[in-house]
Design goal:
It contains eight helices and eight strands, in the order βββααααβββαβαβαα. It has 301 residues and is an alpha/beta fold. The chain has three domains: 43 residues, no CATH class; 45 residues, no CATH class; 148 residues, Nucleotidyltransferase, domain 5 (2-Layer Sandwich), CATH 3.30.420.10. The strands form two sheets. A five-stranded mixed β-sheet has the order 6-5-4-7-8, sandwiched between helices. A three-stranded antiparallel β-sheet has the order 2-1-3, with no helix packed on it. Strand 5 and strand 6 form a beta hairpin. Helix 5 packs parallel to helix 6 and helix 7 crosses helix 8.
Amino acid sequence: MRGWRHPTNTLWRVPLVDTNQVATPTSQDIMLDGDLPAFLQANSLYECNTTEDLIKFYHGCLLFPVKSMWLKAIKAGYFKGWPGLTDKRVQKHIKVVDETEKGHMNRVRQGQRSSKTPPKGDHMDTPEQNPTNEKTHLIFMTMVEATGKIYSDQTGRFPITSARGNAYVVIFYNYDGNHIKSVPIKNRTKEELLRAYKLAYQYYWARCFKPRVHKLDNETSELVEEFVAEQQVRMEYTPPDNHGQNSAERCVQTWEEPFRGRLCRAATKLSHGTMAPHHRASRSHFEYDATMPPKSSLISI
């Protein structure tokens, strides 16, 4: 079964009658994302002998996420509709996976285990509860004003250029929606950076999000600055000696983790230049991850 995906509502469109002809999108179905192919393919699993094979198949489709993160998402109800997927089955069949370990090999920061005795009355102590506390059914709600902030940063050059000529990835982080958007680029010229920024802004506009503040990296160009200024977005720059102020710095590492895991799973005979399928899978991975609320996100930004 072959068809195309609508860029606005993300619904699949396939012909109802088998005419042995390749389905073509109409003029209204033009893809908004320039790095997507004209046709996408929807695959389904017909044969699965055991429950263990099914759970491992789901784990690979999600780019081998951390087990604790996956369990948290399942318990939160974000995987309703996945046949046979439960937290108990994941707990039973998913053990130590090499792809997950290789994709999350991060150096441990220094000073995590202090040898000094902590002072008494630490603010991290659990406060004592009032013995007369009673359970209620009261629910409290609050409203938080949207900031409209987005952050952007570029990855380093990949060791091998992809078959489509891409060698870098520009990462955009939407703070309010806690969403990571990635756009591959061929080089770091001003024209390529401008193309990536236009695709990212079109992506947000199509989803009714208009940025108001954009935190830029130091490596930018006049074309990018002019484009951002034309959108009436206030620009802020990351200090050269403090890159930690740019949240996209952390998002680069978060984005690369499932990307590396998928590359570790790829067949050894697969050409290293086929980076585009892995990039699309990593992007889909964060589209499912970033549906979590900002303060309880699974991707820990």
